[in-house]
Amino acid sequence: MINLNRRTYISLAVGLLFSAIALYFTFVNIPIRELVDYLKNINYWWVAPSLVMAFLSYVLRAVRWQLILLPVKKTGFWSSFHPVMIGFMLSSVFPGRVGEIARPAIFYKRENVEFSKVLATAGIDRILDAVTLLAVFVYILATVSIDPSLDIVFGDYHLTPALLDDIWTATLKFSIAIIGMIALISFSTTRAVFNRIILKTPDILFFTQQPFKEKLRAGLCTSITSLLDNLAVGFDILKTPFNLVLCLLLSFALWALLGFALLLMTFGFPGVEITFLQAFAVEIIICFFIMLPSVPGYWGLWEAGGVFGLMIFGIPATEAAGLTLAYHFFHMVPVIIVGIVSAMIIGVKLVKTIPQEPRG
Hints:
Elements: H1 6-27, H2 32-40, H3 47-69, H4 77-93, H5 99-111, H6 115-143, E1 152-154, E2 157-159, H7 161-186, H8 188-200, H9 210-236, H10 241-266, H11 276-290, H12 301-312, H13 317-346
Antiparallel strand pairs: 1-2
């Protein structure tokens, strides 16, 4: 199922570097013995309800992908749920985030549909996540009170309220830009204008010969226009007002469940008291951190994001590290188990090699 090619090894090497740096800056000032003693005094009974909330978020994710897949093929819940869980499982145990390509590849093989369109729906799925997280993050930064004397040091960098204000402004602008691009790509008229501009781009290279321009047009430019057209297939489902609202509600609900899952975990951790919105914000910050290259399972970056986010809301470093480590471990293991069970149910052999992206 996994092809550990050269690109994968490079991704793993870069991920190791990022994870090592994140681990160092996260734990350099946290006494390990003190952290171990803290983990011994946790009420682990709160893990169970937290896991229930997390599992429900994956259920909603599968339902949302069902909706996005409608322009490609109407499918049942389990046909979307199993590839989703297998994809997350693979990204948790193998380098290169192979789960991102495995999910549409599994659906493509089982449902006999056009791979590029299924891949586009997986991309739309991630775009919805990004839009939701950015929108909620903007709201939280604007409403949640932060200590004006806050000054968290990471190496040579200082996190202050003024810097958070700058982050809020930049996030707001980025969110508006993403929504604008989605709107432009969704409509055939504006997308056609983009495609014409892209196809004519080689003509700007007046210093090159015509055969090279045509080769560039037929290769790179055509690939980009095909990508935009395939993305539009995924956005087609969002043009229906009801489905658009439903997808957005599902996006908010699944991330809210994860925020609530983190909040439930805090009830068993002495010295950690945060609100739902603060837990939601920490969940979002973790997601921003794990977007960077990392080792399988996002170890290091997950911890850096969690500790960083909790310290913003006044949680001491040791308690923040203990909660983040436990939250990561107890939420990663079930995903791996469910993903393996899903692979067994639908007959996906994990020891085989994932082919290169299918054509068509």
